[in-house]
F-actin-capping protein subunit alpha (Diversispora epigaea), 288 residues
Amino acid sequence: MESFAELPVEEKFKIVSGFLLESPPGEVNEVYNDLKVLMGDEEEFERGIKPALQQHNNEQYIVATLPEKNNKVIVSKYGQIGEIEDDLYLDPRSQQTFKFEHVRHTVTDVQPYPVDSAIEPLRAAIDTAIIEYVTDHYPNGVSSVYSTDDNSTLSITIVDNKYNPHNLWNGRWRSTWVISPESNELKGTIKVNVHYFEDGNVQLNASKEIEITASPNSEEPADKAKAYAKSISNAEDEFQGSLNESYIDLSENTFKGLRRALPLTRHKLDWDKILNYKIGQELANKAT
């Protein structure tokens, strides 16, 4: 079997790109730096890894901050303008475009991008309603609402990150909702990723696809937006509740069925003490 160093460059980038795309929440920089050392050639690595880094940032809803208004916007395919190589994104809230540097997460070349769309009043109303919902339910949540070119659908993206590396865990919540205003149908995808790495490496990846229909009181943008936000809130509350129930069941039933909570002695094993006994025994054997 060939070693990593002997592989063709294309095969190397295929491998390291896979590692990068599977980076746990908040840890992509550490993975990126380790992969750079593994590849050796820094300039070649930065050129070759860029497509995977762009894909990662788009899929993981990395948050960009526009400098002048300090406005936060989610980097995703929904706000992408032109080809992915252009690194050009839209902030529909401030009606501006910007270039996003995917390695350092910096924003440059901010330009006005006036929106002339019949669906803009509804998009803006939904944006306001979702901001209120996210503020109430997510400690560090960010949201963006986009309309399509043909005005047939609107897309809502929500992300909240909780990074706690000092306590050895990081987590991310992402949800996406695509709305058809004519039918008031919402199609959503919720994804939760948590990485716990105290004395081990445990990852939680949970996701759910949801289809619901909202019932607005009227066709007014504010009424429709309020109904959409309420439907999203109910669906996400239900998903979070089901997660909580699942982990209670895992703790109380599933894990107990896999192994004993304590050995037969009913006392936890002190592995450090056992190691010291073993070292002491080895020294005693050498002395004799």
Remarks:
- Residues 221-258 form the longest helix (38 residues).
